[in-house]
Write a structure and sequence with these properties.
Blueprint: E1 6-10, H1 15-23, E2 27-29, E3 40-42, E4 47-49, E5 55-60, H2 73-95, E6 103-109, E7 120-121, H3 131-144, E8 152-158, E9 160-162, H4 168-177, E10 190-191, E11 193-195, H5 196-208, E12 214-218, E13 224-225, H6 226-237, H7 247-254, H8 256-262, E14 267-268, H9 271-275, H10 285-293
Parallel strand pairs: 1-2, 1-5, 5-6, 6-8, 7-14, 8-12, 9-11
Antiparallel strand pairs: 3-4, 10-13
Helix pairs in contact: 1-5, 2-3, 6-10, 7-8
Length: about 290
């Protein structure tokens, strides 16, 4: 019996990687040799050790955390290198392989668009300004180089993923459960959320549908201003959500991270997914929060 092609996943220990592993069989690609053997990779050397003999697809999720603390220059370099240089290393390794996967699904981010206020942002909107916008644009450019190798490339511009297992929602919950939650700054900035189930469904679609190619916005149709998100979260928890985190306090505490992530507005529209006929499991916020929070 022939061995089926493997699905390699970088960043498999993260929120999305673990959810994907719960749905289907994957081959994790950690950055250190597993104690019990198996594939692993060294991005700095553009090397994957002990790769499976047949790779059908790669889901590339690896990247240093963005929102886990104030950005120092060292932290910013780690964010950039882990995404841009890591993707370049992966594509370089693929170029030297006689057998290549059919598809590379590369995580990207709505940070591509920068802070754009109320502008509706479909996939044909250009990149914005700022550090995160440059990281994502360079990241996607490295992934695109796999196209020249005959590999179908899908770039998923992820919004803020809602999951019971971690991520941004887990950071917010302690304050909201105490009735101390509320909008960030003015709360007028658009908050491009989506449910973890839709993230995994889109990844599976991207892996299997040969028509999937290029960039796709991953934000639910029912995205809303951040103050409305805070209000909905408080409602689901049965707690008030009226205490704002003042803009200046956020900037003093978090510096550049506050402007580029917490207070940035990205009114992202999933135009290409809708054109492809994708059916959202959780298109509206109330249903998504109720499902995630039980």
């Amino acid at each position: 019996m022939s061995t089926p092609p493997s699905l390699l996943v970088t960043g498999a220990s993260g929120l999305v990687g673990q959810a994907l592993a719960a749905r289907r069989t994957i081959v994790p690609l950690p950055r250190r040799a597993p104690a019990d053997g198996g594939p692993w990779w060294e991005p700095a050397a553009a090397t994957i050790h002990d790769p499976p003999p047949l790779i059908g697809g790669i889901v590339h999720l690896a990247g240093a955390p963005v929102a886990d603390g104030r950005w120092t220059e060292k932290k910013k370099q780690a964010i950039y290198d882990s995404r841009v240089k890591g993707t370049a290393a992966l594509v370089s390794w693929l170029a030297d392989r006689p057998q290549r996967p059919a598809v590379l699904v590369c995580a990207s981010a709505v940070g591509f668009y920068g802070n754009r206020g109320d502008e509706r942002l479909s996939e044909d909107a250009g990149p914005g300004e700022g550090f995160l916008a440059k990281v994502v644009a360079d990241w996607e450019a490295e992934a695109d180089k796999a196209s020249a190798l005959g590999i179908r490339v899908v770039k998923l511009r992820l919004g803020i993923v809602l999951s019971e297992d971690g991520g941004a929602l887990a950071t917010m919950l302690p304050a909201f459960k105490l009735g101390l939650g509320g909008p960030l700054g003015s709360g007028r900035q658009w908050f491009p959320w989506l449910h973890i189930d839709d993230v995994i469904s889109v990844i599976e679609w991207a892996l299997t549908d040969d028509s999937a190619q290029g960039a796709y916005n991953l934000a639910a149709p029912g995205i809303c201003p951040q103050r409305d998100f805070a209000r909905a979260l408080g409602s689901v928890l049965g707690r008030p959500a009226v205490l704002p985190a003042p803009r200046m306090a956020l900037k003093l505490a978090m510096g550049e991270l506050a402007d580029e992530a917490l207070l940035a507005s990205q009114r992202v529209v999933p135009t290409r997914l809708e054109e492809a006929g994708y059916s959202w499991s959780f298109p509206e916020l109330s249903g998504a929060l109720k499902d995630v929070l039980g």
